[in-house]
Amino acid sequence: MSNVDRTTSAASFRTHLKTFGRPLLFILVFVLAVWSIWILELHQTDFSGGADGLTFLYGAAIPPEMSVLEVGLRGLLETLYIAYVGTLFGVLLSLPVSLVASRNLFPWYLTLPARWFLAMLRVLPSILWAVIFVILIGTGPAAGVFAITLYTIGFIGKLEYEAFEGLDNEPIEAVSSLGATRLQVLRFVVLPQAINSLISQTMFMFEYNVRHAAAIGIVGAGGIGYYIMGYLDFLQYDRVVVLLAIVFLTVLVIDEFSYRLRSFFLGDMSTSISK
Amino acid sequence: MTSVSTCKPKRCCEITVTRSSPPIRCRGLSVGYNEDPVLENLSFTVGNGSTVALVGRSGCGKTTLLKTLAGILDPLDGEATVLSTSLPQSPSPGELGYIPQSLGLVMHETVLTNVLHGRLSDLGRMRSLLGRFPADAKTDAREALERVGLDGYEQSRVKELSGGQRRRVAIARAFVQEPRVLLADEMLSELDGETAQSIVDCLITLQQETGMSVVIVEHNLEMAKDISDTVLRLGAGGIEDRIESESACEPVPRQSHE
């Protein structure tokens, strides 16, 4: 009977929480927003110089200096190489760690350190990893590749273990009770079930890394960002705008390409209301 | 002690099973989740080659008991021996088959690969990594699919099959595995009469050939009586009723077969 009592009181507590919890949550979100704006003094922002600044930027950047197109494309190619190699290494190295980090596959004394390791890699954004590698091994694309790889392990590793934990547990339990080893369960049940979301995440990560590989050039880690920084230093905004346009168009193309590839693996994603 | 039994005239089987220790024996077993018992003080045995059906209302603990016998949940109290191994230790790889309610098939994989999962216990580490099954296992898997009426579906993905076909894939997996004990959770729910009968026929054929013991969870009492030797009606935290089926086999001396 004590179990029943405990269950009933827990259920009524949950009902109360549902009734009063939601309005309280809304109030909390609102109060925190007002508080943050106040602390940051956002309400006192001075926009008066903005118009002059925009006029100056427009005058300096338009018309764009198209002669940098060749330099820009060369930089872009290097950025794509950095993003590609960094994503590939990152995804391959993240797989074993993320499997061990999945709570439905391994005991807590293994999942916890694996999660800490992945979180540690995520603490720094790729641009700060790039700063560290530029200090360690000097400027150039190698620093960029290491930075992107490390950040990718941390980032996609988390997406992966969440995908593994979201898998249907019954095939895992059924196949392991047939006498399969843990390695066999990972190979024959977990990976085949997760492969589509792994491919989709890898495409997302590549697109993300192209943008970041462009940015890490700013600290000297190679790619198109290196040229952007150079032109910014000399206030040549008419050239900077061409390079930014190249990055923008590349991201658009990759976004579309990754959507098509994911549709190929996951099936048509459009619904009756998206048409 | 060794004795002999024949099985179920109703199912026209003529198999002879050498009875040693029963494959499943529970004494004072309590099962449940997170230290909260759902069923307590269960005592029953499942003999060689016999079928025990678990019936009872939703939430009475049928699946919990099955998962405990499959080694997925640890028993809370009491003793349970499955194939001479005391729970929570698992019996030798490949001796126990378990078909969960959702069948435990890998939906994105082909039918053939899912059936081959029944042979994973024979596969070495290198072959496992490469995902390569030996040719004889593949031949057996194709044969098993033929027997459950799914020849020609080898390369189809499981997610493309109907509910009844998926259940037959799970049975083909058991055919290939040839477990000594099969635990099946609601194999026959949500099926029309004809499909349910064909699944039962497949299961009986498998049992006749291998002499395996079966514990099956079934909602429908009539169906449960029809397919089993013993029906255990679960409820109120324990076994409410024990019904010996008319079709149950009577132990007969060996010479009657000779």
TrEMBL record, chain A:
PANTHER family: ABC TRANSPORT SYSTEM PERMEASE PROTEIN P69, PHOSPHONATES TRANSPORT SYSTEM PERMEASE PROTEIN
Name of the featured protein: Phosphonate ABC transporter inner membrane subunit
Primary location group: membrane
Pfam families: BPD_transp_1
This protein's record includes keyword Transmembrane helix: yes
GO cellular component terms given for this protein: plasma membrane
Keyword Oxidoreductase: no
Keywords: Cell membrane, Membrane, Transmembrane, Transmembrane helix, Transport
Compartments, as annotated in UniProt: Cell membrane
Membrane-related topology note: Multi-pass membrane protein
Residues spanning the membrane: 20-40, 81-106, 127-153, 213-234, 240-259
Organism whose genome encodes this protein: Natronococcus amylolyticus DSM 10524
